[in-house]
Amino acid sequence: MYASPLSRRAVLAGAAATAAVAGVPLPGGRAEAAESEAAPAAYRWRNVVIGGTGFITGVLFHPSVRGLAYARTDIGGAYRWDDRTDRWVPLLDHIGWDDWNLLGVEAMAIDPAHPDRLYLALGTYAQPWAGNGAVLRSEDRGATWRRTDLTVKLGANEDGRGTGERLLVDPRDSDTLWLGTRHDGLLKSSDRGATWTPVSGFPAVPSATGQGVTLLVAAGRAVYAGWGDGDGASANLFRTSDGATWEAVPGQPSGTAARVPIRAAYDRHARELYVTYADAPGPNGQSDGSVHKLRTSSGTWTEVTPVRPGGTTGGGGSADTFGYGGVAVDARRPGTVVVSTNNRWAAVDTLYRSTDGGRTWRSLKESAVLDVSETPYLRWGEDEPKFGWWIQALALDPYHSRHIVYGTGATLYGTRDLRHWAPQIRGLEETSVRQLISPPAGKAHLISGCGDIGVLYHDRLTASPPRGMATDPVFGTATGLAQAARRPAYVVRTGWGDHGNGAYSHDGGRTWAPFAAQPGIAKDAPGPIATGADGSVLLWSFVHWDGTRHPAHRSADNGATWSEVPTFPKGATPVADPADPALFYAYDTDTGTLFASADGGRTFAARASGLPSGDSQFKLVAAPGRSGDLWLSAKGDGLYRSTDGGGTFTRVESCRASHTLGFGKAADGADYPAIYQVGSTEAITAVYRSDDEARTWVRVNDDDHQWGWTGEAITGDPRVYGRVYLATNGRGIQYGEPVR
Predict the structure, then answer these.
(1) Dihedral sign from CA coordinates of 506, 509, 514, 516
(2) Residue at 563 is within a domain
(3) Keyword Repeat on this protein (predicted)?
């Protein structure tokens, strides 16, 4: 309930990925060197620690190297486990702005015979507005890459993203790879992923809207492929024994509970292939499912479903509907297998473990002791954490029979004794971040508004916030976050919540209370909010998730009562003047017009017009401590500035493009705040700092630290010169500091 693909992911329509040619390996994970404008300033970049927060869609332990594992996410790249430091190492931070669509990892593949080889199939969306997918291949466990661009699209953040690996090294030949696609059938490579061709003899017919291949798995010398476009009656599991001819697997299960093969795992000792099924690809929408095993030596199928979905549960008699998701076998103990339920909201998802080949099962949830002290947000504002939801990624360490990990919509839980579970998430940060505030005073240097996990108060940058998510009320996704410039203890937030959609804080964001009332439209269309410089006035704008805009509302009594502001441009983001409590601003992106209010937000009138227009991605910000000093990031149309409260704007000639902008502590001897932006001065979209009011810029990130699309929010620290906080769409909050 905290992580639907629409609520937690900004669908970046219009930002089409630019394809690149295959590149030679370079240090630091780069596939090719970006065009360089000037040597970047020496900065150290790290994640602000939250811990996970995104959908972990796959985990692979390497079968021949102890302690080597990989994880994939739907929008936040891939990771390698460093067993020496107990941390995940990000492998795709070099992905740049133009290639943002490649931060979603559709599938991973490892080569059992060559432990240093790793393959990734990348592509976040298969929609017409998204770029094609790509395959990255590495000979050094992801330290460097070679890249091949595909002519098809992949969908790492679409339905079915938690199904099995769609990429596989052929068990007979390490030079041969298979890649299952959603809409273009099965592809094959005979040169270790450098080139790809369609498999003409694959029996299933691709659909423009279906799931296509859902899994590829080796069982002995055979390769099996799951197919997600069936109707429950037709074949959905195919195999090849020679790499040339494919056939439907005889005797395979049918019916609604076996409509979509989700994942598969092969017990090589018992020569049995376990397959989990559901009536939909998931992670949402599953209500039925089953587990079956195939004895490959005889072709005999046996149903081994732990619990059949159906019936009711709980005091309210809720329907106990769900599908089956992950499956893993014990490489050391024949007949030991673990499976997961998925989308089981009434009784809560669990893992079932069997030590006798599926004849009997034990649920691990009931005896589980969950320790989320390292990532307290996992309590979701309640007393105790849940065992999990969206459990499709599941892996069992081939060197430790009781070391199990499973992914959820927010974390990766692990155990080494089947009883005590804790997040195994250090280094893995997948938050989609929407708003950032760096307060000028107080304990916290950062407050963030995020997808799925609402608002966080960061006591320390190196530890997950000890208070977890902001409560009273709990939000799923934050839509607005604002601080009174002259009264920084007062902070307000808005977002999608079940018990109110707006709240305020009188202690700088540490604790919260809900607004006493909210406009009726707030329930269905919470949007951005602003508070005047002294906190006496609130302006709340309303935008439905489908883009419908509604009139803004104003409150002068801390949210106890609200009145409509008819002259405010519908759907615009309100901006408060940081010095004058009576002044507010709004940018109408439809008409390219700046609106302003001089009466505390009661009425708005047009000022400058003829400015860039088009969509809602333009960002208007006010320089701290100055009245009427406004900056407009207008994407590819550049950067504009007004020093007269929006009466006139002048284009900043030093910028070719500007996507988001913020301010931080001024450099020594400077009388204007440092300016930070995501934009470009010539060719490269990057992170820049200016210490001279945007006359000149210095790049502060580098080719190894790009994080895909970073156009949502950026701010400097008003107390620490040079420190900058950057919101990403899937790699959490990055913060950079000059190397001294």
Answers:
(1) positive
(2) yes
(3) no
Among the three residues 357, 392, 423, which one is the final residue of a domain in this structure? 423
Report how far residue 54's alpha carbon sits from residue 75's, in angstroms, rounded to the nearest whole number. 8
Verify whether residue 74 is a known catalytic residue.
yes
In 3D space, the residue among 690, 693, 598, 694 whose CA is nearest the CA of residue 647 turns out to be: 598
Give counts: helices (H), strands (E), the chain.
Answer: 0, 58
The burial class, CB within 10 Å (0-12 / 13-18 / 19+), for 316 is exposed
The residue whose two tokens read 């072709």 is 299
Q: Positive or negative, the Cα torsion across 347, 348, 353, 359?
A: positive
Sheet holding 575-576, edge to edge: 575-576, 584-588, 593-597, 605-606
With 0-12 / 13-18 / 19 or more C-beta atoms within 10 angstroms meaning exposed / middle / buried, residue 8 is buried
Cα separation, 127 vs 125, in Å, equals 5
Are the C-beta atoms of residues 450 and 52 closer than 8 Å to each other? no
Q: Answer whether 597's CB lies under 8 Å from 584's CB.
A: yes
3-state secondary structure of 11: coil
User: Which pTM was predicted?
Assistant: 0.94
Domain, as residue range, for 658:
433-738
Of 398, 423, 448, the one marking the end of a domain is 423
Q: Are residues 473 and 603 in the same domain?
A: yes
Output phi, psi for 257, to 5 deg. Answer: -70, -10
Spatial CB neighbours of 525, under 8 Å, sequence gap ≥ 6 = 542, 543, 544, 545, 548, 550
What residue spans of 375-455 are helical by DSSP H? none
* Phi, psi dihedral angles at 308 (to 5 degrees): -80, 135
Burial 227-261 (b: 16+ CB within 10 A, else e): bbbbebeeebbbbbeebeebeebeebbbebbbbbb
In a domain, 20, yes or no: no
pLDDT in tens, 199-222: 999 999 888 888 999 999 999 999
3-class DSSP state of 97: helix
- Where would I find the beta strands (DSSP E) of 625-740? 630-633, 639-642, 650-651, 657-664, 674-680, 686-690, 698-699, 714-716, 724-727, 733-738
Quick one: 419 and 455 in the same domain? no
Residue 417 sits in the same domain as residue 446:
no
Catalytic entry in 74, 330, 397, 717? 74
At residue 51, φ and ψ (nearest 5 deg) are 105, 95
549 contacts 542 by C-beta, under 8 angstroms: yes
Looking at the fold, whether 309 and 160 belong to one and the same domain comes out as yes
Domain of 616: which CATH number?
2.130.10.10
Q: Is residue 40 part of a domain?
A: no
pLDDT digits (tens, 9 = 90+) for 436-459: 999 999 999 999 999 999 999 999
* Chain segment 669-687, per-residue pLDDT in tens: 999 999 999 999 988 999 9
Contact 79, 427 (CB under 8 A): yes
Query: Whose structure tokens read 């197919």?
Result: 227
To 5 degrees, how large is the angle CA 711–CA 436–CA 732?
Answer: 65
The closest alpha carbon to 471, from 381, 338, 358, belongs to 381
**pLDDT tens digits, 346-381:** 999 999 999 999 999 999 999 999 999 999 999 998
Whole-number average pLDDT of the chain:
93
Number of domains present in the structure of the chain: 2
Give SS3 for 29. Answer: helix
Per the residue annotation, which of 452, 580, 691, 717 is the catalytic one?
452
C-alpha–C-alpha distance, residues 229 and 237, integer Å = 11
* Residue 401 belongs to a domain: yes
**DSSP for 131-184, written as a single string:** PP-EEEEESSTTSS-EEEE-SS---TTSTTTTS--SEEE-TT-TT-EEEE-SSS
Q: Does residue 459 have an active-site annotation? A: no
Question: What token pair was written down for 406?
Answer: 């499973």
Token code pair at residue 557: 């009594």
